[in-house]
From TrEMBL:
<dbReference type="InterPro" id="IPR012675">
    <property type="entry name" value="Beta-grasp_dom_sf"/>
</dbReference>
<dbReference type="InterPro" id="IPR002888">
    <property type="entry name" value="2Fe-2S-bd"/>
</dbReference>
<protein>
    <recommendedName>
        <fullName>2Fe-2S ferredoxin-type domain-containing protein</fullName>
    </recommendedName>
</protein>
<keyword id="KW-0560">Oxidoreductase</keyword>
<dbReference type="InterPro" id="IPR001041">
    <property type="entry name" value="2Fe-2S_ferredoxin-type"/>
</dbReference>
<dbReference type="Pfam" id="PF01799">
    <property type="entry name" value="Fer2_2"/>
</dbReference>
<dbReference type="InterPro" id="IPR036884">
    <property type="entry name" value="2Fe-2S-bd_dom_sf"/>
</dbReference>
<dbReference type="InterPro" id="IPR036010">
    <property type="entry name" value="2Fe-2S_ferredoxin-like_sf"/>
</dbReference>
<keyword id="KW-0001">2Fe-2S</keyword>
<keyword id="KW-0479">Metal-binding</keyword>
<dbReference type="InterPro" id="IPR051452">
    <property type="entry name" value="Diverse_Oxidoreductases"/>
</dbReference>
<keyword id="KW-0411">Iron-sulfur</keyword>
<dbReference type="InterPro" id="IPR006058">
    <property type="entry name" value="2Fe2S_fd_BS"/>
</dbReference>
<dbReference type="Pfam" id="PF00111">
    <property type="entry name" value="Fer2"/>
</dbReference>
<keyword id="KW-0408">Iron</keyword>
<feature type="domain" description="2Fe-2S ferredoxin-type">
    <location>
        <begin position="1"/>
        <end position="76"/>
    </location>
</feature>
């Protein structure tokens, strides 16, 4: 049995310690926003925030999550008002939606530590696999969310990122 803080609430999960956190979230906590993609931590669909850091929940065991604070997409903002969620909608950075929760969680973790990331910072923090081609809009969404978090208003959309400085996008 593992004890952790999940979305700001203490929780005990009665599963073996070697259970991937992803399955504990989905099966025991009934939080299905975190998605299974590759099972190796490469695609990013299962990204959650653990003690302030974006982490793949498919490779983190429940035992490794013991005593830690975990935030899922459901806990980021129950009413979807988090600046990253709002910016993803405003910039139309959502296509099929499968990898969106992981992207949003990674972006939120990045912006919590750096509210003015460069395109290179964004590319490094969000190396997710998204086959829908939202990468340029994704960069704009993260930049817009940073503007919101810094209290800056902008009437016009942010300029499109250059492809030369966005490796992996």
């Amino acid at each position: 049995m593992a004890s952790l803080t999940l979305n700001s609430q203490p929780l005990e999960i009665r599963l073996p310690d070697d259970t991937p956190l992803l399955w504990a979230l989905r099966d025991a906590a009934n939080l299905t926003g975190t998605k299974y993609g590759c099972g190796t931590g490469e695609c990013g669909a299962c990204t959650v925030i653990v003690d302030g850091q974006a982490m793949p929940s498919c490779t983190l065991s429940l035992g490794e999550a013991e005593g830690r604070s975990v935030t899922t997409i459901e806990g980021l903002s129950p009413d979807r008002s988090h600046p990253v969620q709002q910016a993803f909608v405003a910039e139309q950075a959502i296509q099929c939606g499968f990898c969106t929760p992981g992207l949003i969680m990674a972006a939120a973790a990045l912006l919590a530590h750096n509210s003015d990331p460069s395109e290179a910072d964004i590319a490094a923090a969000l190396p997710h696999v998204c086959r829908c081609g939202v990468q340029p809009r994704l960069v704009r969404a993260v930049q817009r969310a940073g503007h919101i978090l810094r209290g800056q208003e902008h009437a016009a959309p942010l300029p499109a990122p250059t492809t030369a400085t966005t490796p992996g996008f």
